Amino acid sequence: MSCINCTEPITDGTTLVSTCATGNIWIFMSILEFFIRRQCDLEDPCGRITPRNEPEKSYDFIVIGAGSGGATVASRLSEEEHFSVLLLEAGLDEHAWSQVPALFRSIVNTKLDWQHVGDIEETGCLNWKEKRCAWPGGKVLGGSSAINGMMYMRGSHKDFNDWEKLGNKGWSYKDVLPFFKKSENYLEMDKVDPEYHSAGGPLSVSQFSNQPPLGFDILNAAKELGYDIVDLNGKTHTGWTIAQSTSGRGSRFSTARAFLRPARNRPNLHIMINSTVSKIIFDNTKKAVAVEFYKNGKLSKVGVNREVIISAGAVNSPQILLNSGVGPKEELEAVDVPVVHNLPGVGKNFHEHVTYQMVYSINEKDLNVLDINSALEYLVTRKGPLSSTGLWQVTGMINTKYANPKEDHPDIHVILGGYTAICSLNGVNNSSVPSRREILALPMVLHPKSKGYVRLRNNNPLSKPRLTAKFLSHPDDVAVLIEGIKFVIKLTETEVLKKYDFQLNKTPVKNCEHLEFGSDLYWECAVRHNTAPGAHLAGSCKMGPNTDPMAVVDEELRVKGVLGVRVADASIMPLVTSGNTNAPTIMIGERAADFIRKSWKSDDFSK
Predict the structure, then answer these.
(1) 220-228 contacts: CB < 8 A, separation 24 or more?
(2) Are 259 and 142 contacting, i.e. CB atoms less than 8 angstroms apart?
(3) End-to-end CA, the chain
């Protein structure tokens, strides 16, 4: 949510109505920042991290990136007292108000966001500025877990079984489930199946308690269409739910809060922020011996005794490998980067979920007011409008005609959004309340066949890389997305939802005016022009066996062809998981730490 202009609907479909101006909402959030920070100083789990200004000469392990994977890896490795661990993060620490669920949209396009922008696309994003897609990405302790919508979605059982079938031994669902459970602290275990959930881990997971009545009516509408209400992280991955979230007691649990803050006083864990890695340095045996990074404009180098773990995400992880001379030989030579090892798959297989934003208006005037009273309620009780993302957690996994329902592997993820709050700093009166509310529906393609790439722009390690998603370049992705759109229309026409009078915005998409609205040709034109990235980037350092020439890491996440480097984030996914990627990335971090600990057992660590 972002109160850009409180008298106009904003890009996520949430209508903010009041007399408040842009400056006032930032004053509002600054006040929240002050009081929440004061409270956090009294609570050990959210105590502030004191970063180091200078590293030691060398460490046993250097973790690059403090996001969903990296924070997990660094915390777990530092549990071993004889391991010394340096965690390098390009961004800063979290704002205190970033833990406020209702404000999650306000973090995008701030200094906590990498603000990735792609190269010109030919088959998607055609109405974007210069045909360049854009994606948010957390540049902050906690990474994207500190700026996302907090939806906790592991993926389907089949996702991981397919990974193993591709030659990645030990990555089936039964193999990864214990690592999901290891992280998890489910706050209401009496409501879930203990075969699939656990309590006692560092990461709080719960369902937001503050939900609009519309959300439950949407679930009933899904039931009218034959779908069950299920735990999508449990036995089945088909159905509808109020999603689980990485939250507890009405506030966000990023991986920084869950994993790093409890570990912040360990003497063997050093955390450096505002530290952008330029490259890994290898010796003549192709073993990693140091990491080079910029801090406050100054270039520094720190030695590594055992391993470097790259957890910088699906954009920055391949970029770091490429800048280090590990990647396709011809691409490195083209930008004058010395080749350390020719590894063709680095940066390839870049893909993510693609969606389309459908805007509806509904006949609903219930107020969910963001004002001083709701702020006080939140500060005192962690309840009220600020304690939830509202409709954003109402979600379903559905099968189009192209899916095989017997596989429990849906091909469309439907996310509802908007309807978060009405913004009021000076009070709300009837004249300022809209006659209709706007909400969003986003059908998302779960198994995209379109694949792009990440490449270096030049040999300056601080330059943004070239990103090409090639959205909708495979016709099957277009066909599935159109069926997802048709399902949403069918959902909004159910008996249960008739009282809301759902009205789809039928203003023709620019450059599609010549086509009949609602026809398949119109929807194909619409999704290609107003393409919406899902912000679930994956695959660019994919895991695979030696028989796969495009694999970058092996089944223990070790980079092929060099020594002492692993990758632990969503970039290792051979196929992106079915849903939001935060939870599986944390699992990947848990697995990486486990592999490393077993590789360097205490009894032979001195060798």
Answers:
(1) 220/496, 221/491, 221/492, 221/494, 221/496, 221/497, 222/396, 222/491, 224/494, 224/495, 224/496, 225/490, 225/491, 225/494, 227/396, 227/398
(2) no
(3) 53
Non-local CB neighbours of 191 within 8 Å, separated by 6+ positions? none
Q: Which whole-number Å values give the CA distances from 325 to 275, 281, 340, 596, in the listed order? A: 20, 9, 5, 24
In the numeric block, the tokens 């706050």 are attached to: 187
Question: What angle (nearest 5°) sits at the alpha carbon of residue 284, between those of residues 279 and 286?
Answer: 55
Provide the whole-model pTM.
0.93
CA separation for the pair 390, 212 (Å, rounded): 6
pLDDT tens sequence across 152-162? 999 999 999 99
Each residue's pLDDT tens digit, 250-282:
999 999 999 999 999 999 999 999 999 999 999
Residue type, 580: N
Q: Bin 40: left if φ > 0, else alpha if -120 < ψ < 50, else beta.
A: alpha
Which structure tokens are listed for 472?
Answer: 């909708």
Residues marked active site are found at 536
DSSP string of 410-459, one letter each residue: -SEEEEEEE---EE-SS---GGGS-SSEEEEEEEEESS----BEEE-SSS
DSSP 98: G
Nearest to 353 by CA among 153, 66, 103, 150: 153
**HSE, side-chain direction, 13 A CA sphere, residue 304:** 27
pLDDT at 22 over 60: no
DSSP state of 585: H
What is the CA angle 149-150-152, rounded to 5?
130
Paired tokens of 573:
């996914």
